[in-house]
Each structure stands twice: as C-alpha cells, then as structure tokens.
Amino acid sequence: MPLLHIIIIAVIQGLTEFLPISSSGHLILLPKLTGLEDKGYALDVAVHVGSLAAVVLYFWKDMKLAFGGVPRLLIGRADTEGARLALLLLITSIPVIALGVLLKVTGLYQDLRSVAVIGWAMLIFGIVLYWADQFGETRKDQSDFGLTDAMVVGVWQAIALIPGTSRSGITITGARFLGYNRHDAAKLSMLMSVPTIIASGALVAGEAFYKADRQVLIEGGIAAVIAFVAALLALGIMMRLLRSVSFTPYVIYRVVLGVVLLFIAYT
Fold first, then answer.
1. Cβ–Cβ < 8 Å for 228, 236
2. Over 80: is that where the pLDDT of 165 sits?
3. What is the spatial distance between Cα 156 and Cα 146, in angstroms, rounded to a whole number?
4. CA dist., res. 95 & res. 102, Å (int)
5. Could you tell me the pTM of the whole model?
6. Ramachandran angles phi, psi of 213, nearest 5°
7. Is 109 a residue whose pLDDT tops 70?
8. Which of 82, 182, 197, 210 could cross-link with 65 by S-S, CB 3.0 to 4.6 Å?
9. Integer Cα distance of 170 and 23 in angstroms
10. CA of 135: how far to CAs of 138, 153, 173, in Å?
11. CA distance 7 to 248
C-alpha cells in the first residue's frame, strides 16, 4: 500500500476517533468516494491501537486507577475506587460488544456500510447531539457516574455500530441527556472507548494477523504511530475547547456532510 494512503488513513482515524463526527463513517467513505483500495483488517487494527494508546496516555490518571482495580474485580470485589471504575467501564461496553458480535456473525454490518446510511446517521445523530447539548441539564459530573448511568450510556454506545453515528458523539449525547456537563460527558465517552476499542480490535485481530505478512506489519506500525499522534492532538484540542465552546461546530460539520452524502447517494 502506498505510504501516502497509509498516512491519510491514519490521520483520518486519529483525528476523527474521539471527535463526535464518526471515524468509521469517514474511513468507509474514503474508498467509496476516492477509489482508493479498502484498508483491510490489519491496518484497521493498527490505527485503533494507535488511538487506544492516545486515550490511555491522555487520561492516564483515570486509566491507571481503572487498570489497578482489575485484580480486585477478577476476584469478584468492586470495593475500591479503581475496581468500581473498571466495573462501570466494562458494563458500558457490554451492549456494543454483544450487538457487534451479532452483526459480524450475521454479516448485517456490511449492509450498513453505504453512503446513504452514513449520510442519514451523520445528519440525524448530529441534530440529536445538538438537542442534548443545548437543552440537556447540567447537574452531574464524573463523580456521579454509577451503575444505572453506565447501563444507559452503554445502550447509547451500541447505536454507534451504525456507520456515521460516531461512538464518541452518541455517548456524549447520552451523557448530556443524563445531565453531565460537557467536559465530563466527553471524558466519560473517552474512558468508555478503551474496553470497546480493545474488544473490537480483538474481534478482528486474529484474522488480520493470520493473513498479515512482514510488509503489512510494517505498514501497520507506521499507521499506529501516526494515528496515535493525530488522536492525541485531537483529544487535547477538543477537551480544552469544551471548557468554553459547545459541540455546535461539530454538529454543523455533521449536518453539512450528511446533506452532501445524501445528495450523492440519491443522485
């Protein structure tokens, strides 16, 4: 695969993974609208590993706490702050993992990878994000995150399996509807991404690396590093801006892109 193609894919993945504009939607559109070859499973896993490393590093204090609580959780105890956080993050991932396995086994996910579906998802869930952000209450922060909210936001996260929805966008939407402030809604969304990315990567990693040769592994390594840098940059900018700026700029981008894609799909 040409180096430029690898760079384009990695940058798109890194920049869009944690912004509420759908990384999967953009990566599906790339070959459809440009004629470039599909990236394949190995590169998909690689760019997700890069994105995962970025979110773990950016929120290292919280992730260290959650990782430290895993041993307690493995013996059936959630009696420490770390174990409780790890348990809640795992709960949020159950609906999306279950539905993701179902869609992969049945092959239904391929039927959703169309320009029309991505266009409608961009448009509709962009408007829903705007509604939640502008009219949702602001009465909760991260310290209020509990079992019920974890289950609710987990269901919202499962909707992200529709290409164009945006995993971060839909979980932020769910959190804002529950009353979380913008910054902590985004932070919870990013923390939720860790078990979800690990699970989705594991789902295709075996097949990807079974077929991978040395060249593919080298390309994957390059893509992972570039995606890591791009994701870290996007995370830093978004989290800082959210202290003074709403999600409206992302909504505008989604609506405009959605309308353009629907025009392309139906004409």
1. no
2. yes
3. 15
4. 11
5. 0.91
6. -110, -175
7. yes
8. 82
9. 13
10. 9, 18, 11
11. 28
Contact 233, 58 (CB under 8 A): no
Domains in the chain: how many in total? 1
Task: Report how far residue 222's alpha carbon sits from residue 43's, in angstroms, rounded to the nearest whole number.
Answer: 10
3-state secondary structure of 91: helix
Cβ proximity of 114 and 162 under 8 Å? no
The pLDDT of residue 204 is: 63
Question: CA nearest 19: which of 229, 154, 184, 189?
Answer: 189
Phi, psi (rounded to 5 degrees) for 86 = -60, -40
Q: 199 is written with which tokens?
A: 């699970």
State the residue range of the domain holding 17.
Answer: 3-266
Percent of the chain with pLDDT over 90: 64
Phi, psi (deg, nearest 5) at residue 4:
-60, -40
Angle (deg, nearest 10), helices 81-106 and 147-158: 20
Give Cβ neighbours of residue 255 (< 8 Å, ≥ 6 apart): 122, 123, 126, 127
User: What are the start-end ranges of the H helices in 112-247?
Assistant: 115-135, 147-158, 167-177, 182-211, 214-241
Q: Which of 128, 116, 132, 234 is nearest to 178 (CA)?
A: 132
CA–CA dist 224, 52 (Å, integer): 10
Looking at residues 186-211, what average pLDDT do you find? 79
| Token duo for residue 260 | 């353009």
Q: Which residue has the tokens 């995150």?
A: 145
Q: How high does pLDDT run on average in the chain?
A: 89
| CB distance 51 to 228 below 8 Å | yes
Instruction: Report the alpha-carbon angle 207-14-114, nearest 5.
Output: 65
Counting Cβ atoms within 10 Å, is residue 243 exposed (0-12), middle (13-18) or buried (19+)?
exposed
